[in-house]
Amino acid sequence: xxxxxxxxxxxxxxxxxxxxxxxxxxxxxxxxxxxxxxxxxxxxxxxxxxxxxxxxxxxxxxxxxxxxxxxxxxxxxxxxxxxxxxxxxxxxxxxxxxxxxxxxxxxxxxxxxxxxx
Length: 117
Description:
two-stranded antiparallel ribbon; globular; small ribosomal subunit rRNA binding; alpha+beta; Alpha-Beta Plaits
């Protein structure tokens, strides 16, 4: 399954570079906010999941690069979650959330990913 493969690859990048995975949430299949075009195909739906992790800036860059080069990805984003307060003092965190979107069908399946609207 593509979601499992991409989650495993991304998680391995984070862990191998000293990061910590805080959670993985599978949202399932949804319609995209607007049709997305990738490699000549138009997609109307995709599989969403969230991977929350703490990591360095270099690790975040490696995650972005890996996801950007993966042809199975329609779109993704890396979002800074902010800092938390503990015992009256603020603790900075590099918690990030990756929201990723995968096509439900093969990239080159002409029935499900046509150029027709």
